[in-house]
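Researcher: Next sequence.
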Amino acid sequence: MHVSDLPPIAITRLDPGVPMPARAHHGDAGVDLTTTTDVVIAPGQRVVVGTGIAIALPIGTVGLVHPRSGLAAKTGLSVVNTPGTVDAGYRGEIKVCLINHDLETPVDLRRGDRIAQLLVQRVELVDFVEVEALDETTRGSGGYGSSGGHALLRTVGAGEKES
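Model: Next structure:
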């Protein structure tokens, strides 16, 4: 069932042996991406793995690579730069930078394992204009726990040096 008014997205399998990205269930937002190689990810280690696919997203859309929740819960495997961004102009292989957050157990991936999910979303391509000052709001510049209930975080901002 086609539920989007976007045209179908062109996809190329760079590795014909990997499955086409697919939704696990009807209506799921993301399609599963698989790894093209066997890899063992040690505790705390990061690794970039190929998916064997390239896509041609239309201008005004973006591909977002998210972790698979089951893998994250069961093994500690996640995507380092969550979500990863696939820009509309990119035509190379989609690769995923994975990290094993488990402190003790390696994650053993095999070729064809589902490692992440890809969501395609519309994106606003806005212009930016530099101004002398921004308009005032009730919140102002308060962020990172400023609404209360959290321990203070050490932050470094523009013009500040880390101590």
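Model: The first strand starts at residue 10 and ends at 13. Residues 69-75 form the longest helix (7 residues).
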